Amino acid sequence: MARIGTVIDGKYEVLKEIGRGGMSIVYLAMDRRLNKQWAVKEIRKKGGGGDDALVINSLIAEADMMKKLDHPALPRIVDIIDSGVTIYIVMDYIEGESLDKILSEYGAQPEEVVIGWARQLADVLSYLHGQKPPIVYRDMKPANVMLKPEGNIKIIDFGIAREYKEQNLADTTVLGTRGYAPPEQYGGRTDPRSDIFALGMTLHHLLTGIDPRRGEPYAPVRQYNPELSEGIERIIDRCVEPAVENRYPSCADLLYDLEHPQLITRGYRKRQRMKLAAFLTCASLALVLAAAGSVLHFTAKSLSNRDYDGNIASSDPERYYAAVEIYPERTAAYEQLIEYCKNHETGNDEIMRVGNAIENHAAALNPARPETAALYYEMGRLYFSRWEGSFRSRAVNAANFFQAAAESEAEFDKKEAAVCYDLICRFITSQSAASEHSLEDYRALFEEIDRAAAVMEEASDGEANYDRISLYYAALLLIHDQAEYMAGVGIDRETVLGRMEALYKKTEAITSTLTYVNDLKAEITETFDSFVVSISAKYSEVEKRRGTGGG
After folding, report:
1. Count of C-beta atoms within a 10 Å radius of residue 95
2. Whole-number pLDDT of residue 139
């Protein structure tokens, strides 16, 4: 057991104990070189019974699994130190409170707050399930979700997570936590949909305050609180279906409903039918009023022009949305919304709202116009540079916009960049497994990135630095995401790290007075070292598998 003041590996000074389990103790430690706090998990090798060895191996396996992952809602593993008798695992120190503590202190939580947490949890589970092979978390519950002071969440305790192999259905005997775990988990059978069940039970607990571990019969959330929406009740009920095939097929499908809960209600469908009836009635009246309408047309159009121009001249984003409704075919209001998101800490919900506004009015926007193609490019880039989520989730959200920009018949000055981003998105979101990409695929991808970067580095317009740093960041994220697969096809570590270093130097050379450019530069600077550590760990893992006959 490390004492307060002990310095581990010459750099991590133990400050205090912050938690312990049967085989491990967790300390808060200060990195004396970086002046940064980390959590350090100490695992002592007792070397006696077989059970000790199993637990130690499980904890080490957890660390090995975690160090390959990168997502804002997952703690990072930054160092693993084996002193012979003790293993130290250095990871992010997470400030905040667990959701079960929040439940015990404040009771059931407001629906809009829980939906915000649910979106983050669905996103991180989607990231885990998207690994090759998928990682099934298996222990989703409020106690394993930490709420950070700024409102974001992180999930902890990967002690029973396992890589899921479809051919091995009886993949674990771990039962998870009774009440949250799905029926199939007690029989030793799980797949990614098992996490969806546990997430549903977690949301049920957060909204009702009813702890599922008590064993009470399940009842829909509105039986406990009639004020909750029909949409969230339907979402949770589908998550916790006892039969696996009746649940959401993926967390991506669940996330869509969490972002649009009103679309799955009976009331919404009824309103759509009523709108259709009203439309037919209005259509008949329109024939009668057409003559009178022609007289007022010029006056109304003049007023609309003034309203549109006044709205987009405002600094209020709600007025930009109002302008969109006046002239959905014009791009100026959408452009103002994108600029607003670039210059303000708006968060994912507002970015998604802007993207939805463009998609909802796609029929009015002419894709053959250069300004429309440029708008699609700008929206895709906003997702890549400002979205808070995994690289894969950024690519999924941005893909349709970059594809529309790249495939547009219109020529615009960012066409080469749009083609490059489109290729990146296709590479990440393709249906084929990432492990099937060949060495030639990667070479072609990086040739396209280099070509787009060269074009951008010659540009001198007001957004040139933003274009450059956005692409550098996307390339850094791509390399980090794909490092394991690049190692697998024979791209050597030095080549990958050399490309990373070159991109980082290009980033450091950028000087700008634009806040959003400097914010992106700071984010790259902050994450670069951890990216290098993670990439090296992924390469070491591939080399280790090859050395033992794996890979």
Report:
1. 12
2. 87
Question: 484 and 68 in contact (C-beta within 8 Å)?
Answer: yes
**Residues 256-305: tens digit of each pLDDT:** 889 888 776 655 444 545 554 555 455 556 555 554 454 444 444 445 56
- pLDDT tens by residue, 55-73: 566 667 767 777 778 888 8
Residue carrying the six token digits 């933003």: 466
Q: Assess whether 121 and 240 both reside in one domain.
A: yes
**Per-residue CA distances from 172 to 161, 167, 179 (Å):** 10, 13, 18
Q: Which residue has the higher pLDDT, 463 or 55?
A: 463
DSSP code, position 70: -
| Residue at a domain's end among 47, 72, 92 | 92
Task: Quote the crossing angle between the two packed helices 230-239 and 111-129, to the nearest 10°.
Answer: 30
Number of separate domains in the chain: 3
Residue 231 domain flag = yes
Decide which of 278 and 319 is more confident: 319
Clarify whether residues 234 and 363 are in a common domain: no
103's enclosing H/E stretch is helix 99-106
Which residues form the domain of 470? 319-547
Q: For residue 186, how far is the Cα from the chain centroid?
A: 30
Residue type, 249: P
Structure tokens at 61: 């396996």
Residue identified by tokens 């959701």 is 99
Evaluate whether 355 touches 398 at the Cβ level (below 8 Å): no
Task: Give the pTM.
Answer: 0.51
Q: In sequence order, what DSSP letters do the residues of 258-325 get, joined into one string?
A: HH-GGGGSHHHHHHHHHHHHHHHHHHHHHHHHHHHHHHHHHHHHHHHHHHHHHHHTSS-HHHHHHHHH
> pLDDT grade, residue 446 (50/70/90)?
very high
Nearest to 533 by CA among 154, 90, 95: 90
